[in-house]
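Problem 3 from the worked examples.
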Amino acid sequence: MPWDLIPLNSGYSIPSLAYGTGSLGSGQWPIDQLTQAFDTGFYHIDTAQLYGNEAEVGITIGQLGLERSDVFITTKFSGSNGLDIPTSIRNSLEYLNTSYVDLYLIHNADLAVPDIPTVWSQMEKVQEAGLARSIGVSNFNEKQLEILLSSAKIKPAANQIFLHPYNYQQQSPTMEYAARYDIVIEAYGALTPVTSEPGGPVDAPLNEIATRLGATTDQVLLAWIKAKGAVVVTTSSKKARLLSYLSAGNLELSAEDVKRIDIAGATGEKGITVRHGLRKLGVGVLFGILILVACSYFKGRGKRSNVVEVLERN
């Protein structure tokens, strides 16, 4: 199966592969990269107020002469410059040069001020006004989703979360809760095992599966996300990789393949948690040593100053 559309509870559908602009910055570079992504075959663009390149997305679509209906645009309320949701969505639409976005997300739960129900009510008004076809959240856990749904008139259509084999166990409760209420999961960071955490337990099944299927480990990870029923949000500056990501839509993992990756991820998650904890501990210890050294230095310096004063008086 290719990267098919996934139905949303809003009545619309979302392309299951998205090109993320979070690492692109602003200026000509994102325009060039977006042009390459469109030329390669991506048509779901994931941006945000925080990324600072909504205008570049709008410029690229205009320069390429793309019809609005040919592009699925996701953007996010990030609370930038202290702006509220009504102002933020209007600004985003102006930057994107469109009258609506396909999906509008709250970037994280910390932005829900004064509380989640109040902010979600503002998001519902965005959809009711036709400024977004679907609304959702990002980086919400199951407890935060529960608070939201307790007063919602409109259910979130999607929840975009950090997801890869090494945090799948941790994210499973959120994914299960979302599935219960027909909320689609979008996954960013899927390639973490090969980009940020190489050498872990997931490497073995990834390499074996990739060799057997004639694929890359990147493609296997994207296929794993697809097997979980989630939308993939990814990026690359290399056209060859973008093409391989598109090809990963045709990759079929067996239930056993998925299970092996799950088990290896759960094993690695414990090691990564310990390793990150040790890193934090190491930083804390180093910081403590620096403070002690500094205190000793200034204490010694103070004693030397007192000796000098005594000598000068004599």
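Problem 4, a separate protein:
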Amino acid sequence: MAVLDLALEGLAIFGLILFVVLWLMHFMSIVYTAFRYEVLLCVQDHDDPAIDVCKKLLGKYPNIDARLFIGGKKVGINPKINNLMPAYEVAKYDLIWICDSGIRVTPDTLTDMANQMTEKVGLVHGLPYVADRQGFAATLEQVYFGTSHPRTYISAHVTGFKCVTGMSCLMRKDVLDQAGGLIAFAQYIAEDYFMAKAIADRGWKFAMATRVAMQNSGSYSISQFQSRMTRWAKLRINMLPATIICEPIAECFVASLIIGWAVHHVFKWDIMVFFMCHCLAWFIFDYIQLRGIQGGALCFSKLDYAVAWFIRESMTIYIFLSALWDPTISWRTGRYRLRCGGTAEEILDV
């Protein structure tokens, strides 16, 4: 689908406390005046300071078809789905772009995603990456989302496996409606995976945008990163139990040990020498990949990269074992107990 086809089909843009709307409404008021679209802003908490920002923007751009929804609608255990439900119920166009508040966009982000929405494509998603920020925690996140994560994410996309993160997705609303609408995914914490699965099960293909989904959260720390990685690992284990075997051996240190043991028995090579050489090669190729995704110079030194890479690789086994040990997760303001298959139940304080 070309970008001009948006004028025919229309587009609903969902935002979750959407500061990206600052660009969105200004840019669309200039460029997308000939297109049919609406901006639906969703804020969960009534005391969120983003509400005042959104109201000022609505007043500043009265020519934009935009509305603000506050409080959400409780339809299941997933807080993101609950937040989006009021907007989804009144969305009037065939395409919806769900974009999280922490995503930084550029003037051609929507254009790029729309260009990927061809006749056989039902979902367009972006490769998650991280914007340049200050501090070692930011470096750690950027190294992960530029090395280990895209290696798995892009490989899954190329080989046809369902691997989609919902932080920035353009989807066909009628396909979601055939699957029961957003409410059908409110029983899952990983709603993005099951939405993608529902779209794929109906014969639609996925496309990846050429622009990354640039995460730009203002709150970040090493502990938050570790908690996020543990939560994702728990979700993968419950949704796809095969990851219990596959995931550890896909990491550098474990893979290097296994391959080193194999070549030692086959070729009689020294296992530790091979381990060190293999890790070094992995380290170098990860750096090359990171630079490629960054698209330019990194905001940190090679020493910072080396330290962050080593710490990230060293954390993997601990994160994996933590995910196996405790099936409960904390997300946003709630705590949930995961069940096999991906469903969950909320843990209420007595």
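Solution to problem 4. Residues 239 and 342 are 5 Å apart (CA to CA). Residues 271-294 form the longest helix (24 residues).
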